[in-house]
Design a protein that fits this description.
Blueprint (H helix, E strand, L loop, with lengths): L5 E8 L19 E2 L4 E9 L2 E8 L6 H15 L6 E5 L19 H21 L2 E11 L3 E8 L4 E7 L7 E9 L4 E8 L11 E2 L3 H13 L2 E6 L5 E3 L14 H20 L5 E2 L2 E11 L6 H11 L5 H19 L6 E11 L2 E5 L3 E2 L1 H10 L4 E5 L8 E2 L10 H7 L10 H14 L7
Parallel strand pairs: 2-11, 4-5, 10-12, 17-19, 18-20
Antiparallel strand pairs: 1-3, 1-6, 3-4, 6-9, 6-14, 7-8, 7-13, 9-10, 15-16, 16-17
Amino acid sequence: MEQTVRLGVARKVITPKVGGQLYGYTPDIFSESVYDDLTLSAFCFEDEGERVLFMSATVCLIKTELYEEIASVVEERFGIPKDHVILHATHTHSGPNLAGEAGWGDLDREYYEAIFLPALLSAVEEAMGHTVPVKMGVASGHSEIAINRRELHNDTNQAHLGQNPWGPFDPQMTVLSFKDLQGNTVANLVHYGMHGTCAGQNHEITRDWSGLMIDAMERESEGITAFFNGPEGDVGPRLSNGKTTAEGDNKIQYVEEMGAIAAADALRIFQSVSDYQPVRLSFASCTVDVPLTSRIDRETAEREYEKYKDSTVNLGGARAVYYRTQLRLYEEGYADQAARRVPQSILRIGDVAFASFPYELFSVIGMRIARESEIPYTLSLSNTNGSEGYMVTEDQICRSGYEVKMFKTGYIQPYADNADWHLVTQTVENLKKISKKGE
């Protein structure tokens, strides 16, 4: 048969000890039990000497500096260039703190060093050592488990976290399935865009809704399956309580409800995959330049810092650090920059391309990229190769809300209002750099 990509897969448990912080809501929520084990899945793709690691970790976020540290360790130990290491966080809000963001708690370095990093390195070693030639099949289908979460309140004319039935979200769920040359399923990847907040401010460690979906896929296919979250910044689960975060005593019931529906959708799409073909791999290490506006003036920084200097939790805590940093940089003579250069990995496998972003992308960004791309299945990944906050769309800035406030204070200089357009156009250009081997 014609040449095809080789794939090695490994899965390791990364569940933290009970009693640690559950990251994603407030820094005072700690685990009391384990509902389901957290996992890290490693996929090693090889083609003509080129090797790419594609990993999915069932945690909320991974700090950019921590990702860079991990990629450097992998390069040193295994010889894989660090820009060929793609590390994705599925965005469950019921796992350990690997982000260390002001207002949300400190990075759990003990967990990282004792559990996360050893498991990751073990998975990489195992995946690299067991690659086999594979064929790939792919299919997309419709799923209504998600809903736009920027509910508009008439009293304020601003967006609040809730359910917005007329707001945009991407209903496309995509399943990639890989079989060896004997027809056995080696692995599957599921892509969809939605927050992992079904469990709400619970006290159980859990992968949230995507964990139950993955388990069902693995029972059906007998192949290791991983979830890769798409643009989810403005998208939450369509919970039966009319919200996108669970409330009440038995919050896990919402994980089970949404996980079951997601599993049914993923299985339906998986079962529609019928044409498995040899595929080739292409990879490009690129950048996107996100335009910036001028910093706030010193007087504004001083005034705003006085408002928030005693705040420590969530937006208030983040703003206290933001304005304090602004004042420090004025003392240090920081000079404004025109843009922020952000690394981007583009991985193409056959007719599927994955584009990495360290942001929580609004859903329209991914849909625009997919529409403009020449590659049949173009899948944008949120929370990949780092964590840099929200990337909103220009039309939503006037509605303010949690995500917009984070967007405006997520970097030293505020991002330009049309940063989303620059991200789309540059990513589309980067996708053109990826050739399809064998053509």
